[in-house]
């Protein structure tokens, strides 16, 4: 009987170790797919930027037009360093928040941190849409923020420059996804290392 | 012949027409572009260009090259040729040649004003200005807070002064005002250039009317497409269209109310010269519209050289030179980014 129980325990351990290895390999595979996707979208973005410069002229699309006045970031990254329930850090992208909303979110974040366990934050426009029940309003807000961000190159910009903006936006999302995946990859690696040591 | 220009043109314009036709023969051919498109690095491009008219401008540039360096040096060549022609020209050709640069002057003014609004260093902005559009007091633009000051402090003594009457306000400069100022100035400039060419008469008037009308129509289409989905109202959009061209006035009425690319296509396909351009695009597509317009422009500019004894050849050469620089910029970017498969997306062959 004892031998059978011990046998069951060790086969469970082996199954657990195999699962950890599978998790590691899955995470690695997904990570490499994202790396490839990132490379591809960056290449596309840079070429679209060159195309926008071809279309609008070099004097309208160049780095000397970047706005150096102090202003709130329209897109922020929130890092949740993990808590009681999870050891993984969590990266969340908040896209296209206006300056007023950025301050509001910062206040809410500080308030939530002072309470109990940290909560993952949705993108601000999605939360607003859920509260107001109006996805159209949220989309209009996002479009306004996009327009405002591109206005440093002029208010009448070519569709190619807007396509460039959209591509780099996708790139940013991929980067955040990669960060989250890397965190889970490292965690899976730690589990595999632990299993090897116990063996 | 329109006005018996053959009898008198060569007295004052013969030498420079010969010079500009010589410059035209130095433009890159399809064979040159094919060689350039096969380059692996920017140094290869420099090596291929060393056998062309650009050779002396690039030969002293150290490696590693940058795409902006290639564009800058090629632009210098065009500027030198322009200045040579301007110094040799007499009236009215000298005024005609100066008109060609006013578009660059407007771009430079807007660059300085926008950069200043964004708290950029003036020296840095001056380095980015197009050399054909430079004037003495350009750096003083940085102190102006609104258009009235812009005009009073700087632009009143420049050739752009007459174009400011339609856009002088005391409102502070912001991104939207600057954009409207840019397009209003350009509209006034095109109309003034058109009237000047009409006054010259003869073959110059005939050929330049066609070229400037095409420019006005292209700007109308670009303004329409670029303003879709923005805060620019229909009335403001209509005000930015020039008061001449094939699309004036009925095409402009239709373009002013367009809300998407398909409506723009619908408005433009009623005009046979533009039907061929829009037939190359699939529905909803606008990515290759620029190339299609540039190809049509190059065709018309090359046709200007088929006739003698008119000033249109000077305008055509400068525009073809600018197209050549755009081509070199695109090829350099594709080579630098290792995306040679996309090089033919935007190169417009001149010959």
UniProtKB/TrEMBL annotation, chain B:
GO terms for cellular component: proton-transporting V-type ATPase, V0 domain; vacuolar proton-transporting V-type ATPase complex. SUPFAM superfamilies: V-type ATP synthase subunit C. Gene3D superfamilies: ATP synthase (C/AC39) subunit, domain 3, V-type ATP synthase subunit C domain. GO terms for biological process: vacuolar acidification; vacuolar transport. The keyword Ion transport applies. It comes from the Eukaryota. It is a peripheral membrane protein. Subunit of the integral membrane V0 complex of vacuolar ATPase. Vacuolar ATPase is responsible for acidifying a variety of intracellular compartments in eukaryotic cells, thus providing most of the energy required for transport processes in the vacuolar system. This is V-type proton ATPase subunit.
